[in-house]
Design a protein that fits this description.
Elements: E1 2-5, H1 11-23, E2 27-32, E3 38-43, H2 52-55, E4 60-64, E5 84-86, E6 89-91, E7 97-101, H3 108-120, E8 125-127, H4 145-158, E9 161-165, E10 169-173, E11 179-183, H5 184-191, E12 194-197, H6 205-214, E13 222-225, H7 232-244, E14 250-254, H8 273-281, E15 286-288, H9 290-294, H10 297-309, E16 314-318, H11 336-352
């Protein structure tokens, strides 16, 4: 439910509304409008509450019931796209933001080589996996805390921001056979600028709640990837878990979905059409991952162009200095030259096709 205050309302009138919300055991979120009019979002199961309960309060202009199950991330709750700022970059504004880097940090030399050309191409955000949850227990799992420290060093050296994936509590067996609990999420929060939630964790609702609460104070941006077999409603409700627990800075990331398609041709089915749906339904920025959506580097360029043309707010791309010998996702990692082509192409497309405006729809 959304409560619109009248122009010229007094703090005392607004407090009466807030007191009524709290008296019924609900939570609320206040949006301070640019025209001096506050909008109050009431959170909870309001099925038994009539609009008149709030509408009769002096100073209230109108009360609107939100029909969506995802409340705070819907356009009904806030028609304007929420812009997520990371340093000099603003995800959700007209200019698409590019993030690029290796799927996984393999060594100091590898990370330095890739970071150098990412910086030379003026890409503002470096991606790199320190912790890599993998389907196979025998696959390379990442360098962990050592990898996070390397990313922090690169950030200091080149002035880029970093995005890396976080998982929850891990149990580690020491050489002495003892079990130690390691909270990977807390390590990532300490070192990164953007926390990535991978497709495997999109439905880990306890993890999403913890993530929202732990980042509530600093509002650290969260890049939330769609699960490969999740509906868009599932996806938006996962974002709602984070936002409703105190962190509004969520970036939706599409990375392809699982269909009947043969993996010999493409790793996943690119969900380009979902960009327009999410932009219409949600007030969160949307970026696209052409690397995981295709699985092959030759497909990354055309899918990147299609995503930008469809209105994506940015791209997250895997790149490697030696793709043939990469420990993780080498087939879908583009070279420096291919990455440069993608950058040039995104700029050209956005000039020809301005991003659609969904704020008034």
């Amino acid at each position: 439910m959304i409560i619109h205050m009248k122009k010229g309302f007094t703090p005392e009138q607004e407090q009466v509304v807030l007191d009524r919300i709290k008296a019924r055991g609900f939570d609320y979120h206040i949006i301070h409008g640019a025209t001096g009019i506050d909008v109050i979002g009431v959170l909870g199961d309001l099925s038994s509450v009539e609009e008149s309960y709030f509408a009769e309060v002096s100073g209230v202009d109108k009360v609107v019931r939100i029909s969506k199950s995802y409340k705070m991330v819907s356009r009904e709750f806030s028609p304007r796209t929420h812009v997520v700022k990371i340093g000099e970059s603003a995800i959700g504004e007209e200019e698409p933001v590019i993030m690029a880097g290796p799927c996984s940090i393999e060594s100091r030399e590898q990370l330095e080589s890739i970071s150098k050309y990412v910086h030379e191409l003026t890409i503002p955000i470096l991606r790199g996996g320190a912790y890599k949850p993998r389907t196979s227990p025998y696959s390379f799992q990442g360098m962990g805390l050592e990898g996070l420290k390397m990313l922090a060093e690169i950030r200091d050296r080149y002035g880029v921001k970093i995005v890396t994936e976080a998982t929850g509590l891990h149990r580690h067996v020491t050489e002495e056979g003892k079990i130690e609990d390691k909270n990977v999420l807390e390590n990532v929060i300490d070192y990164t600028d953007i926390i990535q939630v991978g497709t495997r964790n999109m439905k880990s609702y306890g993890f999403l709640q913890e993530l929202g609460l732990l980042t509530k104070a600093k509002k650290t941006p969260i890049l939330l990837k769609r699960g490969d077999a999740s509906t868009l409603k599932d996806f938006l409700l996962a974002a709602e878990y984070i936002v409703s627990n105190g962190n509004p800075n969520v970036i939706l990331c599409l990375r392809g979905i699982r269909t009947f398609e043969d993996a010999k041709f493409q790793r996943a089915t690119a969900d380009i059409g979902a960009i327009a749906v999410l932009k219409r339904e949600s007030n969160l920025p949307v970026i696209f991952d052409p690397s995981h959506s295709t699985g092959y580097r030759d497909s990354v360029y055309p899918m990147s162009m299609a995503a930008i043309a469809a209105g994506a707010d940015g791209l997250i791309i895997e790149t490697h200095n030696d793709p043939s010998n990469a420990l993780c996702d080498g087939e879908q990692s583009v070279t420096k030259e291919q990455l440069s082509m993608i950058l040039e192409g995104t700029r050209k497309i956005r000039k020809v096709l301005p991003r659609p405006d969904y704020s008034s729809k």
